[in-house]
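Q: My labmate handed me this sequence with no annotations at all. I'd like to see what the chain might look like in three dimensions before we decide whether it's worth expressing. Could you predict it?
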Amino acid sequence: MHGRFYLCVPFVLCLAVGAAAIGHAETPAPSVHWGALAYPDQERTLMAGLTLNRFTEFNNSGQPYDSTVHQTIGFNFASLTWTERFNAWATNLTVGAGPTSDQPTRYLQNNFAHRLFHFKPVPVGAAREATDFMIDGSVTRWAKLWDDRETGFGGIGVSSGTLYHEGFLRLGMRRMPFPIASYLRLSVMGRYSQLWKASAFNQVAGQSYMGQFSLSLGNYTQTNTPEWEFELGANIDTGLFVDPRGRSLQEKFGTVALRFPYGRFEMWDDAINFKDKGPTYGGTLMFDLLALIKVFG
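A: Here is what I predict for the chain of 297 residues:
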């Protein structure tokens, strides 16, 4: 499945068209534990779209993921995220819901990416069939660090639904400038969470520690949130899932994102994990409703 990660750049470029204010979006759970960028929104935002995440019980060699989840799962969420700013504070509400099934993520994995790169298909045993949802809420305090831009943040939040329940803290820096490269920005974040089981996952790790960093490329001469922005990131997570002995299963992910004038596309993958099983890959395509209302309203 590792070849999927290298497909996203040309696919993103085909999707990005138009011109307006850039959109940013928080992705619904469980994307944060699948490798998605998990930084808080910095500006007022209202976005909607589709978010997919796939959990594979086996890799393409038939080796099982050593966890307490014994089925393949494809989460297909219609997603809505809303952020409001109140001076230095930001609040966010993100909702994702939809039918859970083997498709279309199985097709994208086996019939598209693995066939294109001549990998063996990933076998599928039992597959979850249900309607799932997750709701996320957070409060974030933004602060100016070394210049007049708000680049530091800290906040708390909760996630709850049919997959699992989670309370989390996050602290980091968003789009810190490079002194010798005005077109580059660095983002880093640490995240701690307490986790509880729900109907989809009957056993999860009691807590999770996550570190995430990314590099962004864009024209930041006039604003810290340009209309076009390309971002590469990586994250390490002590894990949502546990083995049969109750020990957390650490995961590593890479992600690539493109923010374009009417929205945002991101794809995450476990290519740097060299597992190709468990929380394997996902992606989201979100559209900026506030920008579209200005154009068509």
